[in-house]
Specification:
By secondary structure, this protein is an alpha/beta fold. The chain has helices at about 5-30, 50-60, 105-110, 115-135, 155-170, 190-195, 220-235, 265-270, 325-340, 365-370; strands spanning about 40-45, 65-75, 80-85, 95-105, 140-145, 175-180, 200, 240-245, 245-250, 255-260, 275-280, 295-305, 305-310, 310-315, 320-325, 345-350, 380-390, 390-400, 410-415, 420-425, 430-435, 445, 455-460, 465-475, 480-490, 495-505. Helix 2 links the parallel strand 1 and strand 2 (about 65-75).
């Protein structure tokens, strides 16, 4: 064989090899899901059943048809197992409900010694009792879910618990479990999953920062991608569990973690005058100039003196850290699921169901925008209303879905006739300045009698919230008010809007 034929032969072999490698890669590449193809579910984690209005809102915004409802806890006391904290209220309607049972700290501490069949019996008894209740409430129960934070070394025992539970429940019962990130490397996990119909790996909250200087978000794109890739490799059907909640971390003056709270309103902290605002920054900055911030945000505050904030006891110098999600951070992690989860994906399950009573969780409209993978535009509505002949109300409403950053993130300048209005009340605004024009055209502080600009700042304006200023008029109110609005959004954008506000009469 001459040299030219040899080269041609080697070239053909090389091309064939590359083609085979490309084919193998395409066969192993996970299926990429479109947003509308992925079913949505929610967890609900309160002591009372979800309100039907909250469920209907979530269904409307996201099309969700599945709810995982914590129905109680299994406790261990005096050598006996029993269900406590049974969920109160009417069980939800209009959706498929999976009843979830988790363990108290007392049970988790004794998991190594509790007999597997006895634990299964306690769960079975609670579930069968709730099935009777569901019939009365006209609620459709689709299955049972166990949320036991079983140590990885005890996964074999978990398998036995699930096997025993299966034998004690009606044959058609769907059984699922939640999964900890630490389980992914265990060779025992596969046997556990064989005892379930599906599972929900929690792609968040793998580690809580014990020290103030540790920068660990609740959730990240990298962490979610890794979790769903590992779940895909196990070959069992799963929902990907994503987070849409904030939490508050309290650190002592020495930087050590004291308390974790997942039920506090970030706006309450931002508006508290006894807390000094120290810092805010994204866990991951935007990749380039003009790009959106797609990570959660970290806010830091310091207690000026000893006190209490929403039942959290503070000492002077204590540090509060708020880890807050955004529409863009949830959007980025949902996209990571769709691109990496593959064909075994059953859907995305969001922790937690949005509720007006749960300000620590993203609003329904924000979750909707994130899951549909659309830009979270900002809609801050402003209106001026004459409540009476001598009272003018100016209000801002955040219609979402994008949310402003915390701490002085919204500024509004109202241009008014000098000395014509007196500030009668504030709600939702954290700061007000009276300003007037200086000789060089800039604004400077001045008295109420001379002021022709009222500058308002809001430290926080969550979606669906309203901030309002009440002005007492000394003369006839103008029919129009020039307004200059600046909003700093948590995706890194700054929105500026100038408009001539029409003054309307109230009802």
């Amino acid at each position: 064989m001459n040299t030219s034929w040899l080269r041609l032969f080697l070239l053909i072999i090389g091309i064939t090899g590359c083609a085979l490698m490309a084919l193998a890669w395409s066969l192993h590449r996970p299926r990429k899901w479109e947003p509308h193809q992925v079913p949505i579910a929610f967890w609900y984690w309160r002591n009372e059943s979800a309100k039907q209005t909250d469920i209907d809102s979530a269904l409307k915004h996201t099309g969700a048809r599945t709810l995982f409802l914590r129905a109680g806890q299994i406790d261990y006391k005096d050598g006996k197992l029993k269900r406590i904290r049974r969920v109160t209220g009417v069980l939800p309607r209009g959706t498929d409900v999976h009843l979830v049972y988790n363990g108290t700290p007392a049970l988790l501490d004794k998991l190594e010694s509790v007999k597997e069949a006895e634990l299964a019996s306690a769960i079975s008894a609670a579930y069968l009792d709730d099935l009777k209740r569901a019939t009365k409430d006209q609620s459709h129960i689709a299955g049972v879910q166990l949320d036991l934070d079983m140590p990885t070394r005890l996964l074999k025992r978990y398998r036995d618990v699930l096997h025993s539970l299966r034998q004690q429940l009606p044959p058609s019962t769907t059984i699922s479990i939640t999964g900890l990130p630490t389980w992914m490397n265990s060779p025992d996990l596969a046997a556990v999953l064989l005892e379930t119909d599906f599972w929900i790996p929690q792609c968040y909250g793998a580690e809580i920062p014990d020290e103030f200087d540790e920068l660990i978000p609740i959730s990240s794109v990298e962490g979610v991608t890794d979790a769903v890739t590992r779940a895909r490799a196990l070959g069992e059907p799963f929902y990907a569990g994503l987070s849409a909640y904030s939490y508050v971390l309290l650190y002592g003056g020495d930087g050590r973690l004291l308390t974790v709270r997942g039920d506090m309103n970030p706006a309450t902290i931002a508006n508290d005058p006894h807390l000094k605002f120290i810092e805010r920054k994204p866990f991951e900055p935007a990749r380039n100039s003009g790009a959106k911030v797609t990570s959660e945000w970290r806010y830091v505050y310091q207690a000026r003196a000893a006190g209490v904030v929403d039942d959290m006891i503070l000492r002077a110098g204590d540090l509060i850290v708020v880890d807050a999600p955004s529409t863009e951070s949830l959007r980025a992690t949902a996209r990571a699921v769709r691109e990496s989860a593959g064909e075994h994906l059953l859907g995305i399950c969001i922790f937690r169901l949005p509720s007006l009573e749960d300000p620590a969780t993203l609003a329904s409209s924000s979750i909707e925008a994130a899951l549909k993978d659309v830009d979270g535009s900002s809609d801050i509505g402003i209106k001026a209303t004459l409540a009476s002949e001598d009272t003018l109300l100016v209000s801002l409403e955040n219609a979402g879905p994008a949310t402003p950053l915390l701490n002085e993130s919204i500024t509004i300048d109202l241009t008014v006739p000098p000395g014509q209005f007196r500030i009668a009340g504030l709600r939702g605004f954290s700061w007000v300045d009276l300003l007037c024009n200086s000789g060089d055209g800039t604004l400077q502080h001045c008295s109420e009698r001379l002021a022709n600009t009222i500058r308002l700042r809001a430290s926080a304006l969550p979606v669906a919230e309203v901030a309002e200023i009440s002005l007492s008029a000394k003369a006839e109110s103008p029919k129009q008010l020039p307004v200059d609005l600046t909003v700093h959004l948590d995706d890194g954008r700054t929105i500026r809007k100038q408009q001539l506000l029409q003054v309307t009469f109230g009802d």
